[in-house]
Design a protein that fits this description.
This protein is of the alpha/beta class and about 400 residues long. The chain has eleven helices and 16 strands. Helices cover about 30% and strands about 15% of the residues. Mean pLDDT is about 90; it is low at about 1-5 and about 395-400. It is globular, with a radius of gyration of 22 Å.
C-alpha cells in the first residue's frame, strides 16, 4: 500500500483479488473495502454511465467534463472512442450475444442450461477480450449490461420459473426447469399442482397461464421460484466467470448490470469467487452488505428523493430542495459504507421524455450541462475519499 494513501495499516492479504499492476480490490484492516489502482493506491470509483462523444457535446471534451465534476472513471456503455483518454473504464462482455436468449415478462437471460453454451461463452469472451487483454485502464468487466431476472411476486405476472416452464422445447432451460420442479414433487404433475394450488392437468396448463399473463403466486410456487432463480444465477455467474477468467485473467469481474435490479436469491450467487465485485443498485445495499459492491445507476432525480414527507409537522420545502438534500445524504452514505467501492451515476444524457430538473442526465438533450446535478455531484465527488477514510469501519446508515 502506498505510503501517501492516508490509510494506516495494511490490506488483508487473504481478501486481495486481481493481479498486481492492474486494478485490484481488497479489504482494509479497518473493515472497509477499496479498489486498488495499478500503481497500488487505494481508489474509490466515481463513474458515469453511457458517456457519449456526440457532435453536439459542446466545446469541452466529455472526459474533461468528467474530471471537472470529480469523476474518475467511465461507467457502463461509454463510447469506445473515449477509451485511452486517461480514465479507466468498465468493459462489457455481453454474454447475451453468445447464444440463445430467453425472453419473457421482464426476462432477458442467456440459456445457460444449453450444454453448448459454456463453450460458446468461452469463445465469445476470448473474442471480446482480444483487444483489451493486458490493458491496465480496464477497471473490470461486466458480464452483461441489460439482463433481467423476471417479475416480482407483487406484480401478479409470470416470474422467471414460470417463464422457463412455458418456453418452447427448443430451449434447454425449458427441459431443465421441468426436471427441476418435478424432482421436488415426486416426478408427477398432480402433487405439483396441489403444492402450487393451481389446476394443472399437464405441462400445457402452465403455458396457458403464461399466455394469459397470469402469474402463479402461491407460497408453494414461490419457494420453488426462489430455488430456481438461485440455480439459474449460480450457473450464469459460474459459467461467465470461467469464460472471462480464461480470456482476461488479469482483470476484475464486476458481475452483471441488471436493468431493474435483482432479487435476493440472485444476489446471493453474485459473490466471490464467481465475481470479484458485486454490481448492484443503491437500494440493494444495506447494513448487511459485506462487500465489495459497485453501486450502479445512482441518481437523486427519482421520486424517492423528491417526494413530499408524510409527517404533518415536517418543514415545508420544495421538491428540488428535498431532492438535493436527500441526494447529498444518500451519496455521502455510499462513500462511507464499508462495502461500497464506488458508484456510477445513472446516465450521461437525459432521456427524451425526461424534464429537468428531474431528468437523470448530467447533460441535457441539447448538450447543455445539467448544473442542477453537476454542481452538487462535483462537491460530493471531491470529498468522497476523505469521507470514506474518516468513516473507517464505523456504523453506517441504510443506503437508498
Amino acid at each position: 500500500m502506498a505510503a501517501n494513501s492516508g490509510l494506516s495499516g495494511e490490506f488483508k492479504a487473504a481478501t486481495m483479488r486481481g493481479a498486481a499492476g492492474f486494478f485490484r480490490v481488497a479489504q482494509h484492516r479497518s473493515g472497509a473495502w477499496w479498489l486498488i489502482d495499478p500503481a497500488g493506491e487505494p481508489w474509490w470509483g466515481r463513474a458515469v454511465n453511457g458517456v457519449d462523444a456526440a457532435a453536439d457535446a459542446g466545446p469541452e471534451h466529455p472526459v474533461a467534463q468528467l474530471r471537472r465534476w470529480g469523476a474518475n472513471a467511465l461507467g457502463a456503455g461509454a463510447a469506445a472512442e473515449l477509451r485511452g483518454d486517461g480514465l479507466p473504464f468498465l468493459a462489457n462482455a455481453d454474454f447475451c450475444a453468445a447464444g440463445a436468449v430467453i425472453r419473457g415478462s421482464r426476462v432477458v437471460l442467456p440459456d445457460v442450461f444449453d450444454p453448448a453454451w459454456a463453450r460458446a461463452a468461452r469463445t465469445h469472451a476470448a473474442a471480446k477480450g482480444a483487444d483489451l487483454a493486458g490493458r491496465t485502464d480496464v477497471l473490470g468487466w461486466l458480464t452483461d449490461t441489460g439482463i433481467e431476472w423476471g417479475e416480482t411476486a407483487a406484480s401478479g405476472r409470470p416470474m422467471l420459473l414460470q417463464t422457463c416452464l412455458s418456453l418452447e422445447p427448443g430451449f434447454a432451460a425449458y427441459h431443465a426447469a421441468w426436471e427441476f420442479v418435478l424432482a421436488g414433487h415426486g416426478g408427477r404433475i398432480e402433487p405439483l399442482a396441489r403444492a402450487w394450488q393451481v389446476p394443472l392437468a399437464n405441462r400445457e396448463g402452465v403455458r396457458e397461464l403464461t399466455r394469459g399473463d397470469r402469474g402463479i403466486g402461491s407460497r408453494g410456487y414461490l419457494r420453488d421460484e426462489a430455488r430456481w432463480a438461485r440455480e439459474f444465477a449460480r450457473r450464469y455467474f459460474m459459467l461467465t466467470s470461467a469464460a472471462l477468467r480464461a480470456a482476461v485473467p488479469e482483470h476484475l469481474i464486476f458481475g452483471a448490470r441488471a436493468r431493474r435490479g435483482s432479487d435476493p436469491a440472485v444476489r446471493r450467487e453474485a459473490v466471490y469467487p464467481a465475481v470479484d465485485v458485486t454490481c448492484g443498485r443503491a437500494d440493494e445495499v444495506g447494513l448487511g452488505a459485506t462487500g465489495p459492491v459497485w453501486v450502479d445507476g445512482f441518481s437523486w432525480a427519482k421520486e424517492a428523493f423528491w417526494a413530499a414527507p408524510t409527517a404533518r409537522r415536517a418543514r415545508k420545502s420544495t421538491s428540488v430542495e428535498r431532492m438535493m438534500r436527500q441526494g447529498r445524504a444518500a451519496l455521502e452514505q455510499l462513500a462511507r459504507h464499508p462495502a461500497v467501492v464506488g458508484f456510477a451515476w445513472s446516465r450521461w444524457r437525459d432521456e427524451p421524455a425526461e424534464q429537468p430538473p428531474f431528468a437523470q442526465g448530467l447533460v441535457h438533450t441539447n448538450g447543455v450541462e445539467a448544473r442542477e446535478h453537476t454542481e452538487l455531484l462535483t462537491e460530493v465527488n471531491l470529498r468522497a475519499e476523505n469521507l470514506r477514510r474518516a468513516a473507517g469501519a464505523g456504523k453506517v446508515a441504510e443506503c437508498r
